[in-house]
Specification:
Length: 789
């Protein structure tokens, strides 16, 4: 075969691979950056971060993601290319023309080598610098936006030994009103500072945080001697907030991920004696900076024979095995890194073992796939378990659709035939619906699985050092990622369904099935109807997922995250665990050591009663309080009442006394939830309570409407994409998925910025929450006028 023929073959293979590579890298990178869009919008609008600084922060994080998604995209592209060639019998034709399988794979492996070089440049040169700059930029933004990060009526627990509470925040000026600061750093003395107003100032020189308070009162009390009490009044008071210990020393020396490759090599050369843990960490990092890019070549060598052996799998097969191979690779890599860091295996073996396993697998697959096999083309086929899932979902859809059709009745439908046969209801499940639904559901399940797997892989790589340092049990790690799945699905489900919808539509177009449907008198709108109804069902499922599953899973995940991060004093998530709990009146604060729900008893309760300006008026403390006869009866209690122009009145109660707690026992046993962790009904009631108390609730109102508007985006995106899908169908699923990426970026970008505008009270909450749905709905109506069905 002459060089011209080889050039034509190589060019054809590369032209087939490159679009898939760009698509795979673009989709995976965007899916991992979706949540960053909302963080970025929040920085711009709520935290007054300059636009250029926020964009710089986003761009600095991209190299870390690209370093992982480039090898993954290479695997997916090679698998898709080989599967498509095998499905159309082009590999068989090449082998019949004297082109062996390994020769056909050569241009794809060379392309993977170029990806490896690019990825190696990112990991050796770009990523250390971007990580160092990212740490510096993040710290600077955190310091400059610390005041905006404090939420009204939410305790800030980020300062060791100190608890900060702000009743109201003026969104226009950023001024705080009704400030409480509890200081328990001295175990022998309690300190409570109340202030009418104040703000937070950050010293740019050393990053220390200072509270500037006005009209303050400081209450000092020794718990063991309640009769000894001091009170200090000040017009102005400046208090330094304590920083976490890690913040003071984390920048003295950059970590291995932020350190340049040259400096890491110098550390290894300068190490003397037995290898320390630090030296092993440096060696592991150096090997990873080469091994992960080299995985692109190993993935290509595995992907080509694997795709060539699959004659019917198509893109579904490629996506399925891409996810499986990626998970296998990173499981081996993360375990090898742990073993290498602890000194159980050499660093080179621990890091390079996954690549060696892939190369061994590639050699075996090439040997098995080298023989010529008669190819079969046709419809995309899927693994058996996915076909079962799709079949069950299609049957469920048929049951619901048939019931809905019977509910509508048949009086508005003319008979199908002249002999009086009963009419065929357009919503009844049929062969067409099952065929379309199976493909869409299979695509959808694969995309969701891929997104979850990629997120777990990336997050596990980030948390691996914490898991090793804190000796986290395997069951904790598994549960942590299991509880993370609902939030991942919630964040990416609209885009995942859009990809599945467009991939299904474009595959139908590419196989000329849409032409056959129209020739049979079936409009494209009728073809898309089951998919749109599936989108409605998926949106409803997303609402219930958010209302009943995601919030509970996130709270459990946060507890496990405390274990992984090694937080000695974990954040509290139940009222019984929290240091302070406000009653519904917003002016009574309760602190207790323990609540016994069986006996309805509070152990060592402490009650603070404030006036409208958050001046302390009454303080109760008792050894125990029990709920009897509709009130809380305290034993061995004392109280101190503060008069406006007189000395405080101290009383030690020898007999039982009623505490000013007009709440039942279950109030203290309930689970504490931030507004973002409430269901739709709970958040609605919470907003009503705050509005009645005179608080601004724009931020919460946006979140309430978003719980309804966000699930609607599932079907809106699919409806909008329908005209584009059948126009772009000639380019196959690649064109459809690329279009899904563009539409998804536009939708999530608009939603991120407009909702943050609403939360900042720059637009009305209803407008902020529903603008993306209205805009995309109107655009969908406009585009459907141009669709030839």
């Amino acid at each position: 075969m002459g060089w011209r023929h080889r050039f034509v073959i190589n060019r054809a293979l590369l032209l087939e691979m490159v679009p898939s590579l760009l698509l795979a890298v673009g989709v995976t990178t965007f899916l991992l950056l979706i949540r960053a869009l909302f963080v970025l919008a929040d920085l711009f609008i709520s935290h007054d971060v300059p636009v250029l600084t926020g964009l710089q922060l986003l761009l600095l994080g991209v190299p870390n993601i690209l370093a992982l998604t480039l090898p993954i995209g290479t695997l997916f592209a090679v698998l898709m290319t080989a599967s498509r060639l095998a499905a159309d019998s082009e590999l068989v034709a090449m082998q019949a023309s004297g082109v062996p399988l390994h020769r056909a794979a050569r241009p794809l492996v060379v392309a993977a080598g170029l990806v490896c070089v690019l990825d190696m440049f990112l990991m050796l040169v770009v990523m250390p610098r971007s990580n160092a700059k990212l740490s510096e930029t993040t710290r600077r933004i955190a310091l400059s936006a610390a005041s905006a990060a404090v939420e009204q009526r939410v305790f800030a627990e980020d300062f060791p030994g100190q608890l900060l509470f702000v009743d109201k925040i003026d969104r226009g000026t950023g001024r705080w009103h009704g400030v409480l600061l509890f200081d328990a750093t001295d175990p022998m003395q309690e300190s409570l500072v109340t202030a009418d107003s104040g703000d937070l100032v950050i010293d740019p020189r050393d990053g220390t945080a200072w509270l500037n308070l006005q009209d303050t009162t400081t209450h000092l009390l020794r718990p063991n001697a309640p009769d000894s009490y001091r009170k200090n009044d000040n017009n102005e008071l400046k208090i330094r907030l304590k920083q976490p210990p890690t913040d003071r020393g984390e920048h003295r020396r950059l970590g291995v991920r932020e350190t340049g490759t040259g400096e890491l090599l110098a550390r290894v050369r300068g190490a003397q004696g037995p290898k320390t843990e630090e030296t092993r960490e440096v060696l592991v990092e150096l090997h990873k900076r080469v091994a992960i890019p080299a995985a692109a070549i190993a993935f290509a060598l595995v992907g080509f024979p694997l795709g060539a052996r699959n004659r019917r799998g198509g893109r579904g097969f490629g996506l399925t095995f891409s996810v499986g191979l990626v998970v296998l690779y990173y499981v081996l890599l993360n375990n090898g890194e742990l073993f290498a860091t602890t000194g159980k295996v050499p660093a080179a073996l621990g890091v390079w073992l996954p690549n060696l396993v892939l190369l061994a697998l590639a050699a075996d697959l090439f040997r098995r796939a080298s023989r010529a096999v008669k190819g079969e083309g046709g419809v995309v086929r899927w693994p058996r378990f996915l076909r079962g899932v799709a079949r069950a979902a299609a049957q469920a859809y048929g049951f619901l659709a048939s019931g809905f059709a019977r509910f509508l009745g048949s009086r508005d439908h003319a008979p199908d035939t002249a002999n009086g046969e009963p009419p065929r209801l357009p919503l009844t499940i049929g062969v067409l619906d099952r065929h379309v639904l199976r493909q869409c559901i299979a695509f959808f399940v694969l995309v969701v699985m891929a997104v979850c797997a990629l997120w777990v892989v990336v997050n596990l790589s980030e948390n691996l050092e914490d898991i090793r340092r804190n000796a986290v049990p395997l069951v904790v790690v598994v549960l942590y990622y299991a509880f993370s799945v609902p939030q991942i699905v919630h964040d990416t489900l609209p885009l995942a369904f859009l990809i599945a919808f467009l991939a299904t539509a474009t595959v139908l177009k590419r196989h000329n099935e849409t032409t056959a449907f129209k020739a049979a008198g079936i409009s494209l709108s009728r073809v898309a109807l089951p998919l749109l109804l599936l989108g409605l069902a998926t949106g409803a499922g997303l609402f219930f997922l958010d209302d009943y599953v995601t919030q509970r899973a996130e709270r459990s995940k946060q507890k496990l995250e405390d274990v992984i991060k090694g937080r000695k004093v974990a954040r509290s998530y139940r009222a019984t665990d929290r240091p302070f709990v406000f009653l519904p009146d917003g002016r009574t604060l309760v602190n207790f050591l323990e609540f016994d729900p069986d006996t309805s008893t509070l152990v060592r309760p402490s009650v603070y009663v404030f006036d409208a300006r958050f001046n302390l008026r009454t303080r109760f403390m008792a050894r125990r309080a029990s709920y009897k006869g509709g009130s809380w009866v305290a034993e061995d209690a004392w109280s101190r009442t503060f008069m406006a122009d007189a000395m405080p009145e101290f009383i030690r109660h020898r007999a039982p006394v009623d505490l000013p707690l007009p709440v039942p026992p279950d109030y203290f046993g309930r689970e504490y939830r931030r507004p973002q962790q409430m269901s739709f009904g709970e958040l609605k009631d919470y907003i009503t309570t705050l509005r009645a108390a005179g608080y601004r609730v724009d931020r919460l109102t946006v979140q309430l409407h978003q719980k309804l508007a966000y699930p609607l985006g599932v079907v809106l995106l699919a409806w909008l994409s329908l005209p584009f899908a059948f126009r772009a169908g000639g380019r196959g699923a690649v064109g459809g998925i690329a279009l899904a990426l563009v539409l998804g970026m536009a939708y999530f970008g608009l939603m991120a910025f407009i909702t943050r505008l609403g939360e900042a009270s720059l637009v009305t909450p209803v407008l902020a929450a529903w603008t993306p749905a209205v805009v995309f709905g109107l655009l969908a109506i406009n585009r459907h006028t141009t669709l030839r069905t």
